Amino acid sequence: MSGHASPPIFQDPLLTLYTRRARIGGVNRLAEVPSLTVTAFPKTLIIIPALNEADSIARVIGAIHDHAPWADVVVINDGSTDATGAIAEAHGAVVLHMPYNVGIGAAVQAGFVYAVRWGYEVAIQNDGDGQHPAEEIPRLIEVLQSTDADLVIGSRYIEDRGYQTPRSRRFGIWILAQLIHAITGLRCTDPTSGFRASNWRALQVCARTYPYDYPEPEAIVMMHRAGLRVHEIPVTMRQRLGGTSSITPLRSAYYMIKVILAIFITLLRKTEIVRTVES
User: Which of the two ends of the chain, N or C, has the fewest CB atoms closer than 10 A to its terminal CB?
Assistant: First the structure.
């Protein structure tokens, strides 16, 4: 467990974060990962963006404490109208209370800013609905440390592990994967997966700039252009533990159009190449 001092309330140029301290508790597809050899894990932060996840957040944090007890947990309470924030604090997480619903990308970036401010070496993005398996967190870190990857993505589709995705949504994911391959040359089976591990190099990039809405596919392109390396490994994801998904068929179509446009806009922006490793 990390023993760093309690963080102050701070202001960021992009976001105002209200921080309350609680008890701290090509894309390479690696189908086969050797058994874990990590004996000393890096200073790790688990970033959980959460909007109205009161039904599941306690179980998500509990699973992380069980399977990654060395890691600290920060929950980005993104304008929830239920007890998400209070429950997260009661179960040992640091909670950043957004002043209103800023969206998934901005919420995750708040976690990256926090990670950089407090000197974390690795950050894991983990959803608050229970779909991301905490028992896979050590594998993500193992691959991050044992390969040249700067970002490791947990993929639902490298192997058939029984995860059910509606056909229309799976087709949309395939289109995004083909677009990313055409632009970057990277082959990615699950560009929309939000279950990811980032090292210090990736954290530096994402704390400075990160897509604000539906960020996962665009972030792959952004990191590739910054000179970072991306790997995928197979993971077994579950259905959400509670609450209701915000992704409806209509929103899926909107998502596709918006993400494709955002990716092309990203290509027009100047990207700073990451040349050195800072620690």
Answer: C
